[in-house]
Design brief:
Largest sheet: 7 strands, parallel
Helix content: 40-55%
Strand content: 15-25%
CATH architecture of one domain: 3-Layer(aba) Sandwich
Strand order of the largest sheet: 3-2-1-4-5-6-11
Distance between the termini: 32 Å
Structural class: alpha/beta
Number of strands: 13
Radius of gyration: 18 Å
CATH class of one domain: Alpha Beta
CATH superfamily of one domain: NAD(P)-binding Rossmann-like Domain
CATH topology of one domain: Rossmann fold
């Protein structure tokens, strides 16, 4: 198929673009390279360097490439920045999604939207959490993703748009940046590689659902190949792992700092709907995924 990958020079997007090309699809990456890296875009993959909120640029990319599927991964992903600068977060994550959604509608492309699980559900009484749980974001980042999902649902009702949202758990693996708001696995793996202690905020017993990037790529491909799939699907392993347990698995010592406000205490996503309707489930266990990640960190 012909695919457009927004944010395709980033962590998850570049792994997805590689998988698409590897199976023979025609791929165009659209990325402004503000956080994505040009070196993540393999030779032979076309790159349109543009901001996802630039409607003219996104429109030109669609007109020239004629995608059948748009994988929308471009986003502002720093939760702390979303708290410090909510308008910027909304501009990228809400307005940017609207720009891509409108382009997909005009060109008749299926839109597979990368959303978030833990940041949308917030604190919940049921873990693992299913898609029908109340959305209770604790930061503008989660609120922006929820608003973007609502626009997808609106376009489906108003325009019969072909859309689906994937709510990711904590994704980790090769190409994840350990700097800034990089995922905790990337940060801890980098510290382990350097022989330095990892910083743990609070007591370290807060839990997360860690899912390897190859499994997330597979979920995107499954969502693209099931045109009857609509609404939101959790993409996770459905298992809780504490921050302290993660540090132990990576063999890194920890230093404790005061707990950060607004952090979800427990988070894991119930993947039953994706298993049932998309035929998808995570295939990479934590031990194998962490080993692959450490090997990548050591070989960079």
């Amino acid at each position: 198929m012909r695919a457009l990958v927004t944010g395709g020079a980033g962590f998850i997007g570049s792994n997805l673009a590689d998988a698409l090309v590897g199976r023979g699809d025609a791929v165009l990456v659209l990325d402004d390279l503000s956080t994505g890296r040009r070196e993540n875009v393999e030779d032979g993959i076309a790159l349109a360097e543009a901001d996802v909120v630039d409607a003219d640029a996104v429109g030109r990319a669609c007109e020239e490439h004629r995608p059948e599927v748009i994988f929308h991964l471009a986003a502002q992903v720093d939760v702390r920045r979303s708290v410090a600068d909510p308008p910027h977060d909304a501009r990228v994550n809400v307005e940017g999604t609207l720009v891509v959604l409108e382009a997909a509608r005009r060109h008749g492309a299926r839109l597979v939207f990368s959303s978030t699980g833990g940041a949308i559900y917030g604190e919940t009484g049921v873990v693992p959490t299913s898609e029908d749980a109340p959305r209770q974001p604790l930061a503008p980042y989660g609120q922006g993703k929820a608003a973007a999902e609502d626009y997808l649902a609106l376009y489906a009702r108003l325009h019969d748009a072909d859309v689906v949202a994937l709510r990711y758990a904590n994704v980790y693996g090769p190409r994840q940046d350990p700097l800034g708001e990089g995922g905790v696995v990337a940060i801890f793996a980098e510290r382990a590689h350097r022989g330095e202690p990892a910083i743990v905020y609070g007591d370290g017993r807060q839990t997360r659902d860690f899912v390897y990037v190859d499994d997330v790529v597979a979920a995107n491909l499954a969502a693209a190949q099931h045109p009857d799939a609509t609404g939101a699907y959790n993409v996770g392993r459905g298992e809780e792992t504490s921050v302290l347990a993660l540090a132990d698995m990576l063999g890194v010592t920890v230093e404790h700092r005061p707990e950060r406000t607004g952090e979800v205490r427990r988070s894991a996503l119930d993947p039953a709907r994706a298993r049932r309707e998309l035929g998808w489930e995570a295939g990479v266990g934590m031990a194998e995924g962490l080993e692959r990640t450490l090997r990548w960190v050591g070989c960079r």
